[in-house]
Amino acid sequence: MAGHGDLLDAVHEAAARVGATLSRIDGIEIDPATAEFCEYRLRTLAGPGDAAPRIICGDAFDRRSYEGLGVEPYDLVITNPPYVRYQSLNGRADKVRRGLLAAADELLDGEARAIWTALAAGYSGLADLSVPAWLLSALRVRPGGRLALVVPATWRSRAYGDVIRYLLLRCFAVEIIVEDTQPGWFSDALVRTHLVIARRLSDDDLAVPLSARERWTDARWIQVAPAAADDMSLVGAAFPDVDPEAAFASWVYSGREQRLGIDSRDFSFAAEWAALRGTAGNRPWFAELEPGGRDLPLRATGAASGPPVPEAMLDLLPEEFDGSVLCSLEELGLHVGQGLRTGCNRFFYCRALHESDSATIEVELDAAYGSSVLAVPRDAVRPVLHRQAELEGWRNGHIPATRVLDLRGWILPEDAEAARAAQRSYEIAGIAPPRQMPTALAEFVRRAAAQPLGAGEAAKPVCELSAVRTNVRAARPAAPPRFWYMLPDFTRRHLPHAFVPRIIHGSPQVYRNSEEPIVIDANFSTFWPDDDGWSPGSLAAFLNSAWCKAAMEAVGTPLGGGALKLEAVHLRVMPVPRLSRAAIDEIDTVCAAQQSEERTRQAIDRIILRALLGTTTSAAALDRLAQDLYGRLSDMGAARQRGAA
Questions:
Q1: What sequence ranges are listed for the domain Type II methyltransferase M.Eco57I C-terminal (predicted)?
Q2: What are the C-alpha distances in Å from 52 to residues 14, 43, 77?
Q3: Maximal C-alpha separation, the chain
Q4: pTM across the whole model
Q5: In the prediction, which pLDDT does 223 show?
Q6: Interior/surface letters 81-106, b for 16+ CB within 10 angstroms, e for the rest
Q7: Pairwise CA distance, residues 99 & 102, whole Å
């Protein structure tokens, strides 16, 4: 994955600067023209005594490619792992996994082979190509050697990245993580960039499971802002030396004095292990490598471990804080998911033009269908909150104009015979048989089934789209037939108690659904309870507390443009206090009292923070912590957005 050789060129330059001679400088690159240029570039740079570069043109996951490099591991493996989504691998995912397993079998032995094999066999099939590429790069590092990577910041927040986090904890000592801030080092990057430097542990050290590890080290987490840069270097203003990068590298390992535009903090790997144990503890590979590790106590007293406090909030809590009072939303009886995905919004979404008391409603179809106006039965459409632009009206009590076509109770005339043949299925399921669509609606559905959407060879009518074809279901004894124009039944995640945008530009803000809930689109993460103990208002108020908003900001992923990505996977690991039923009822009572917004917020913050710090904590101390949390929330948001404009 050597590309044009930018990183290898930089290594060569750094070696020459310190008078080191490279005995080998190798790379693998899959694209022939790129590999040829990479080798030409490195040969041109080679000086007297330097080894000739070996650039293998081939697939890094193909045994034939790394055969040419031999089995000897490297002092340094440096790369920018390719980010290719699993959907774009075009059937190569299994080949990649087999190649990774073969490399582990051939190049490793003992406990190292067992670890890499378990991780290679167990990483998620939804993982992008960077995960196996990271695993492959790491196995070529000798004990004591270093792994250096340029990676998207999502390696710590994606669920499928847990194998990488485990690999680094088990087999490496992470030394440095360097993070860019807005506007970022790469103008086209959608997320922040991290530089990760890790030293490979000895075979004896990595043989010890993490659950048996007695000592943990900290890494340095360094944030580099645009203020640190000058015209020639990303750190030129912070280190106005002849060689700013060399000065920065020296400071990273030994310096502590403040530098312009650079923040530094310790990164606790004991806390990282606790977090990983909470998120990955139920995975098969984890159970294989850490038998019993999921249920280890957090403290010697035997108290069960709750989800860890995000590092950005940890210093706000008193030293005697007991983490066992924390739990996940799921442990509190709250579920997190994603709103409605129709598979083709251009067909299923329309816009209500005007309401009336009649049995029909006029809607405007998508521009793909000429923005035609169509009269449809009122019960064939449902309001849906689709975009963030509709939130302000929603807060002011206005139902969104967007509607979703809900044709589960309607069929085309040509499908009537199939519905009649399934009469018994409707009876068993307790569902009324569908009615035939009015003529105008039936004509639109037929037209949509024939009209290609998109451009060129990829153009397909809606009924042939992969996400819509799955709507079709043959009749079964307790399941009536479903046709392509019928969405599956709406579930609690589509009709939630509360919801939050998945992409946030300001601070996280959770919105309540109505008592008679409307459909929420997949642009939002959604929340709903196990039972009726929570009202939509009390759930939204809880999630908008100082603690929860700061935690959301801390667990989300900052994006390249300064926004925050807040997915269900983030929210499921967010630590929240174990609220008693009495506390939940108290939140509901406060919401129902309709006090001023400020008094309501203060009362709810006190309820939640009292559950964290104990019932004997004074109201003044609770209020101070709430203000500290709001301040930290503001600071984190400002850091995320810094320079984005």
A1: 484-609
A2: 17, 7, 17
A3: 88
A4: 0.74
A5: 87
A6: bebeebeeeeeebeebbebbbebbee
A7: 5
Under DSSP, the state recorded for 621 is H
CA distance 577 to 570: 17
Rg of the Cα atoms in the chain: 28
32-36-38 Cα angle (round to 5) = 115
**What are the residues whose beta carbons fall under 8 Å from the beta carbon of 85, sequence distance 6 or more?**
128, 129
N-terminal to C-terminal alpha carbon distance within the chain: 34
Tokens linked to 70:
């031999």
Helix (H, G, I), strand (E, B) or coil at 337: strand
The Cα 522–Cα 501 span in angstroms is 9
Least confident of 85-94, 202-211, 325-334, 547-556: 85-94
- Using DSSP, state whether 469 is helix, strand or coil: helix
Residue 299: predicted pLDDT:
36
Q: What is the pLDDT of residue 85?
A: 65
SS3 category, 474: coil
- Distances in Å between the Cα of 34 and the Cα atoms of 29, 155, 403 are 7, 27, 50
**630-633, Cβ contacts within 8 angstroms, sequence gap of 24 or more:** 630/546, 630/549, 630/550, 632/312, 632/313, 632/316, 632/550, 633/507, 633/546, 633/549, 633/550, 633/553
Beta bridge partners of 382: 404
Residue 229 structure tokens:
């840069």
How far apart are alpha carbons 26 and 51 in whole angstroms?
A: 10
Of 229, 250, 224, 249, nearest to 240 (Cα)? 229
Q: What pairs with residue 476 in β-bridges?
A: 479
Per the listing, tokens 């530098």 go with: 259
CA proximity to 442, closest of 404, 472, 415: 415
Over residues 520-578, the pLDDT tens digits come to 999 999 999 998 889 999 999 999 999 999 999 999 988 867 889 999 988 998 999 99
| The predicted structure's pLDDT at residue 347 | 96
